[in-house]
Specification:
The protein is mainly α. It contains four helices and no strands. The chain is elongated, with a radius of gyration of 14 Å. The relative contact order is 0.17.
Length: 112
C-alpha cells in the first residue's frame, strides 16, 4: 500500500505539473511543485525502502542509488529554477521517466 500510495502521489504531482506547464507556465507553480517533490521524496523513499524490507525484499545498492540520484537531480533542478532557468519541461520529462521506468518496472520487478 505504501508503494502504491507513493506512485499515486507522484502521478498526481506529475499531472499537476503538466497542467500548469500547458496552461499558465507559472514560475510559482513550478517552484511549488519542486518543493513538494523534494519534500515528498525525502519522506516517501525511506518509507518505500522500509516497506520492501518488511515484505522480505530488501533493496540492493543499485536500487538505492537510483533513489539517491533522483533526489540529487531534483536538488539540481531547484537550484537551476532559483537562478531563473526554465526547468519545467526537464522536470516533467524526468518524472514521466521515473514513473514509467522505476515505479512501473523496477519496483514491480523487486516484488515479483
Amino acid at each position: 500500500a505504501v508503494i502504491e500510495a507513493q506512485r499515486c502521489w507522484l502521478s498526481d504531482l506529475t499531472d499537476s505539473l503538466d497542467y500548469h506547464l500547458r496552461h499558465d507556465g507559472s514560475r510559482a507553480a513550478l517552484g511549488d511543485c519542486l518543493t513538494q517533490l523534494l519534500s515528498g521524496l525525502l519522506q516517501s523513499l525511506p518509507s518505500e525502502e522500509e516497506a520492501f524490507f518488511q515484505l522480505g525484499h530488501p533493496l540492493d545498492a543499485a536500487h538505492l542509488a537510483e533513489h539517491n540520484q533522483l533526489c540529487l537531480e531534483v536538488l539540481e533542478l531547484i537550484k537551476r529554477h532559483e537562478y531563473g532557468e526554465d526547468v519545467g519541461a526537464a522536470l516533467l520529462q524526468r518524472l514521466r521517466v521515473w514513473l514509467g521506468e522505476h515505479c512501473a518496472s523496477t519496483d514491480r520487478a523487486v516484488l515479483h
